[in-house]
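dumping this here before i forget
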Amino acid sequence: MKEKLLSFWGKIGSQHRLLLGIIGAAVLVVLFLGFKDAGRVYYEGHYYEAGSLFMPDKYGSLSDYMWNGDGVKYVNQQVANLRYQSLFPIFISLAGAGFSGYRLYKDDSFMKELLDIL
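structure:
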């Protein structure tokens, strides 16, 4: 299998390698931004962690000093806003990966070489 992959890598052109590199970089960006800590919110003397986009923190009834639902809604909205800051770069990365994947899919010489190793 290793020989097939090395042979495949040698047969494809530099444009194909660039497009595969864009896809790999986009996957890394999505993983990094998806798991990156979004920060924390300060509310009434306490900090609340936002978590990450893929593993968010959400607060229900926070504690006794949050006696109304408005405080809980405020904190949850603020931590969500921190997490959503990663969405636009993730969408841009996915669009780049999708465009690159589509270009590779439509290229007959690349698809022939890809099917030869499978």
